[in-house]
Amino acid sequence: MDDILLLEAVERYLAGDMQPEEKAWFEQLRENTPEVDQLVVEHKLFLHQMNNYAGTKALKNALHDSHNRLLERGEINDGKPVSTGGKVIQLFHRYKRVTAIAASIAGLVAITISGMVAYFAPNASRQQLQMLGTEMAKLKKNQQYQNDKLRAVESKIPAEATLTGGGSGFLIDPKGYIITNAHVIGNSNFAAVVNHKGEEYKARIVSIDADKDLAILKIDDADFTSLTTLPYTLQKKSTDLGETVFTLGYPRNEIVYNQGYLSAKTGLSRNGVDADSNTCQIAIDVNRGNSGGPVFNSNGELVGIISTKQLEATGVVFAVKTKTLYQMVERLKDSDTSVAHLKLPYGKSSIRNAQRTQQIQKLEPYVFMVKAYTR
Fold this sequence. Notes:
The longest helix has 39 residues, at 34-72. Helices cover 37% and strands 25% of the residues. The protein starts with a helix and ends with a strand. The protein is α+β, with helices and mostly antiparallel strands. The radius of gyration is 29 Å and the shape is elongated. It is built from eight helices and 16 strands. β4 and β5 form a beta hairpin. The chain has a six-stranded antiparallel barrel. It has a six-stranded antiparallel β-barrel with strand order 2-3-6-5-4-16. A two-stranded antiparallel sheet has the order 10-11.
């Protein structure tokens, strides 16, 4: 659709001038196209800001006219000394009712404008950004499903442990180091990870960076066998706008694939307003439970880690960039000698030239469901 025609359609939609059939078609377009949905939200905010500006300008003009009339009648002067005698007291008593009304109107305008800004401006209090950790009700249901499925196997999780959070994660080192989001782990003491076959492994928490929303786990389980290499690598160059990306994660009790594209090279900070260079924006459909999941490009290179999504728009998701992961690992190596041997995957991806279905098959064993516990 032509940009001008699209903008005209948005204006008619917001003004309620569309026929029912056209409105239904446009709402379907908005639901399926994140860019159109975001344009509607931004244009709605723009129109309200223009209305606020018009109201403020009208109020200023009215005050200016009143000021000029008072000057003409000699009841006030324009910067000249004014006697403090009875004239001032008389003027106050004469206009105190008008002053009270003007003050009330000014207060009402201020409250209205503040309310409009609070309602339409993105901010953290309205939870514009939603973390994508698994919902507790669904997590507990998945836990029960797994317990039923593996009831013949003794659980590795202590009976007194409490399930506190969950999401997705993936290996960044074949010896068992896993990256996920900090909000997936929260204040938990330890974790467990489950692979695509339903095999569960105990994991310890190595490091948490709440500011960057990243956490590193280490599989600490005798049943886990270290791997020799990973099929994917960290992306070396920046991703181009519009470049196809995909993710794997656990919004359900089984691994789920989703595809999208890079829609912005920066994300949003936690206040929902400022740009965040540590994240990027992806147009993709994800759900609670995808937090901590990997984002790959078509070459099988790691682009980022799914973190949050924008509530006011469809398919607007933010992922922590790989450069942030690299910086976290390097800082950790400087402060903790026990992880000095942790090596992030670089070089060429072994799935670079494979078909997408083959890439997914190769990647599945390296992506895990993450469950966080306290005891």
